[in-house]
Amino acid sequence: MPASPHGGGHSLKGELLRDAILDAASRLFIQRGIGGTSIQDIAEALGLTRTAVYYYFKRKEDILRTLTEEVTMSAGRLAAHDTLDGDPIEALRAWVRRYAMHILSRPSEFRVVDRNAAELTDEHGAAAQAARRAVLTKFREIIDRGVHDGHFRMVDARVSAFSLIGMCNWTAWWYSADGELGREEVAEAIAEMAVNALKREACRRPEAATVKESLRVLREDLAYLETMLEQRD
């Protein structure tokens, strides 16, 4: 990052100004679209000169690329380096909470990146897609392990992973800092819902005292047993 025009070197003031530019740009991109927003618009929203914004970002495309780096690619790095071994239930709870917090920490920025992925260059688009795959892989690995160990129901890990990712991503559209719940509370609630949706123990008990419901649970148990036997052969 270049030195701040308002302070020396990598100063805190310079970092704050850069973040303020990204935040203002995100809000304007959501309101007007990238095509309807100029660098001058961003500068005016912050009470800055256009030159001050140029110091950090020469073009709107540079802002989008930076947002993608900080939102999408950083999530991919988090997934790639985050080791969650042990109990799959606790691993899933921890990872969903972590990923949800990542989205909730910059919801406006996420919305901009999600809506404008096609505007990236081929190189940056490919990097962003690789990051999204890393997040999907992390979800799938935990779910697959939970199914294999008997902690989770017999579910399609890919479908389940996409569902949980969608639940986390959607917070960028509905979460409000002025709401009754804070980010941490929302992330915790989502993590708990994710675990309860997949936990095998909750589903093994018949939901109603009927033969049909008992057969449903029995079929699921048999399907799980067959899968385990196939994996041992």
UniProtKB/TrEMBL annotation:
Please give the InterPro entries that the UniProt record associates with this protein: Homeodomain-like_sf (IPR009057), HTH-type_TetR-like_transc_reg (IPR050109), HTH_TetR (IPR001647), KstR2_TetR_C (IPR041490), Tet_transcr_reg_TetR-rel_C_sf (IPR036271)
What Pfam families would the database entry show?
TetR_C_24, TetR_N
Q: Which stretches are labeled DNA-binding? A: 38-57
Indicate whether Acetylation appears among the record's keywords. no
- Annotated HTH tetR-type domain ranges read 15-75
- Single GO molecular function: DNA-binding transcription factor activity
Q: Which UniProt keywords apply?
A: DNA-binding, Repressor, Transcription, Transcription regulation
User: What is the name listed in the Swiss-Prot or TrEMBL entry for this protein?
Assistant: TetR/AcrR family transcriptional regulator
- Originating species: Allopusillimonas soli
